[in-house]
Amino acid sequence: MNHPVHLSLIVAAGLAVGTRALAQGEHSLDLSALPEAGEVAPEDGLAAWDSIHTVLTHPRCLNCHVGAENVPLWGTPDAPDRVHGMAINAGDSRFGAETLSCNACHQTSTRANTMPHAAPHTGMDWRLAPAEFQWTDRTSAEICAQMRDPDRNGGRDAAGLLEHILHDAELIGFITWSFDPGVGRDPAPGSLQAHLEDMAIWTAAGMPCPA
Ligand code: HEC
Ligand code: HEC
Fold first, then answer.
1. Full residue range of the structural domain in which residue 147 is found
2. In this structure, is residue 26 part of a structural domain?
3. Which of 80, 98, 129, 185 could be a cystine partner for 91, CB 3.0 to 4.6 Å?
4. What is the mean pLDDT of residues 88-102?
5. What is the rounded distance in angstroms from the CA atom of residue 60 to the CA atom of residue 163?
6. What is the pLDDT at residue 49?
7. Strand (E) or helix (H) holding 173
8. What does the H/E/C string look like for 93-132?
9. Closest Cα to atom 13, ligand 1: which residue?
10. Does 192 reside within a domain?
């Protein structure tokens, strides 16, 4: 990852994620070099957005961030549009409450994913992202606009978007898993740390979006 702003912007750990106090050891992310709001130029924020967009549109993330047809994907970099086998439909609940629960196969467990082609598991209950968080069939500008809109991102402001990543890291949730998905799956590009830094740079720059 190419970060134009760097260690000159050191702030105390926690400042950039709002008022919540994080005890050491809750997650292994390094918060010491995250920039503060207003300290990043818009063009650096846009460059960070490009890296973020590359992550979001990798199949590892996209497979759950699908639209209102509620069909999860088994996408790979070679075949990103492959739909989930066994006619799985997540329903409006997004976790299959109407038919077959995702949890019937995708257990909730922080154990490593060691079996190729087994249903992956994480520390969070497996489910699709809400339909308004759809990233499939969207341009970079469209995804950017919805991610900075609290009406379409789960009510999050800049601090909330960063906190979401830290919370995920604490639970070994979906984002954390996507960067370390286990045997037989390509990880999302980069690392969780680099993704956190890109999100911090983008939000500190005022969440600029491509035209
Ligand atoms: C009958 C068992 C079963 C059920 C129920 C099930 N899955 Fe799966 N799922 C699997 C298996 C097996 C895989 C791995 C397939 C492979 O790697 O070849 C998988 C993989 C996935 C993947 C791809 C992960 C990745 O990026 O590689 C997603 C997304 C997914 N499931 C979502 C869901 C959702 C959402 C539900 C509930 C609505 C659900 N699944 C219900 C068996 C199931
Ligand atoms: C197993 C399915 C799954 C995978 C894989 C997944 N997500 Fe999500 N995502 C969810 C769910 C469910 C929510 C809603 C939970 C919430 O808002 O707290 C969500 C919400 C989000 C949100 C907040 C809402 C928004 O759109 O702004 C972001 C950001 C996000 N995910 C990023 C990612 C990134 C980045 C990846 C890949 C590195 C990823 N997700 C992979 C299921 C998934």
1. 33-204
2. no
3. 98
4. 97
5. 21
6. 98
7. none
8. CCCCCCCCCHHHCCCECCCCCCCCCCCCCECCCCCCCCHH
9. 119
10. yes
pLDDT at residue 33 greater than cutoff 90: no
Q: How many domains does the chain have?
A: 1
pLDDT value at residue 180: 96
The angle that helices 158-171 and 192-204 make with each other, rounded to 10 degrees, is 170
What global pTM score does this model have? 0.91
* Cα 121 versus chain centre, distance: 16
pLDDT in tens, 123-136: 999 999 999 999 99
pLDDT at 9 over 90: no
Ligand 1, pocket residues at CB < 6 Å: 59-60, 63-64, 72-74, 84, 86, 88, 90, 95-96, 100, 102, 104-106, 117-120, 126-128, 185
Structure confidence by residue, pLDDT tens digits, 140-162 = 999 999 999 999 999 999 999 99
* Biggest distance spanned by C-alpha atoms of the chain: 53
